[in-house]
Design brief:
mainly beta, Immunoglobulin-like, about 350 residues, four-stranded antiparallel beta sheet, 23 strands, 3 domains, 2 helices, rod-shaped
């Protein structure tokens, strides 16, 4: 096989292989099917896949500005005013004319408005509403999705599609106070999604709950310092008051949450009842505190006690020593029953 035949065979092979045949010239638009907020500007590019074009241009019915370079021509629309605008880019390659078509979507997507309704109280029914002004949305059927999400764990509360409003009902809980709820709006425009979101903070009021009373030490001994504490939750913080077995020698601390007794006695034993209240309700709890009656080992004692004990021991030993001296040194004997004196 001579050189010419070999070259012809290679050309034929290239034409038969996938991708070996040269592709025809064409044009392409970038970005494809753009979404632009009304009133803003946009720039689109039309490019040629071949260098042997004789003409590149745009066909559009609005005010435009063109710029051109080797293999490309750009379209600048300074202010988009149409909800939908069909655009055409064309290229002429000898007798061939290639056209690329796209649609420009104009939109306005306002921030969602969140309505938390009336005040939320724990244990009662509550609602959260979200809406987007339909006057600012494109005409015709809406491809709009609204989603309500709670900040705690990113949990989705509710979703609605095809309408500009959403309402979610639930039973309010105390732990939801201070959590953030977010409403996100997703608007589908051709091949594009545009979104807007807003957030609001939940305020959940609660009657007193979780009321608990504890005492330290319990039981207590005479002379010990006694502390009784009331723990409670609620929003707003509940006001506390006590029903006590005795008002002697006590002090209220920590906004009435703690009863402190110095040198407690028997009169301080009994029932300690804590009463909690706010404008949404009331709650109560109690603790029965016992009395041991004696100071436990290791408790602080008066410094006079050891002195008195030592003095008593000394007196007892002196008395025993005196009796022993009288009975042995002077011959004294105790008188036997029935014996006569002298």
């Amino acid at each position: 096989m001579d050189l010419l035949q070999s070259w012809r065979a290679m050309v034929l092979l290239c034409l038969l292989l996938p991708g070996g045949r040269p592709s025809p010239c064409g044009v392409a638009i970038s970005p494809e099917e753009p979404a632009v907020e009304l009133g803003s500007s946009v720039v689109l590019n039309c490019t040629s896949s071949c260098g042997n074009y004789s003409q590149l241009g745009w066909e559009v019915s609005v005010q435009k500005m063109l710029a051109q370079g080797p293999g490309w021509v750009s379209l600048h629309i300074p202010s988009v005013s149409d909800w939908h605008l069909d655009l055409q880019c064309f290229g002429v390659f000898g007798k061939q004319r290639d056209i690329a078509v796209t649609t420009l979507h104009g939109y306005r997507l306002p921030l969602p408005q969140i309505d938390l309704g009336e005040e939320m109280v724990a244990g009662r029914e509550a609602r959260v509403a979200c809406n987007v002004s339909s006057r600012l949305l494109p005409p015709g059927p809406l491809d709009l999705e609204l989603t309500l999400t709670l900040s705690a764990g990113g949990r989705t509360l509710s979703t609605a599609r095809g309408r500009p409003w959403l309402v979610h009902g639930f039973t309010a809980r105390p732990e939801q106070d201070g959590q953030e709820v977010t409403c996100e709006a997703l608007l589908h425009l051709g091949r594009r999604w545009v979104n807007a979101s807003a957030a609001a903070t939940l305020r959940v009021w609660a009657a007193p709950y979780g009321v608990n009373v504890s005492a330290t030490p319990d039981p207590f001994a005479a002379g010990e310092n006694l502390t009784v504490t009331c723990r409670v939750q609620g929003n707003p913080p509940p006001q506390l008051r006590w029903e006590l077995p005795s008002n002697a020698s006590l002090e209220l601390r920590d906004g009435n949450a703690t009863v402190a007794v110095r040198g407690a006695g028997r009169q301080h034993s009994g029932t300690y009842r804590c009463l909690a209240a706010n404008r949404y309700g009331a709650g109560a709890a109690r603790a029965d505190v016992g009395f041991r009656g004696e100071v436990p080992a290791g408790s602080p004692r008066s410094p006079l006690v050891p002195v008195a004990v030592a003095l008593a021991v000394v007196v007892a030993l002196a008395a025993v020593a005196g009796l022993w001296y009288l009975s042995h040194a002077r011959g004294w004997r105790p008188m036997q029953e029935g014996a006569r004196p002298g």
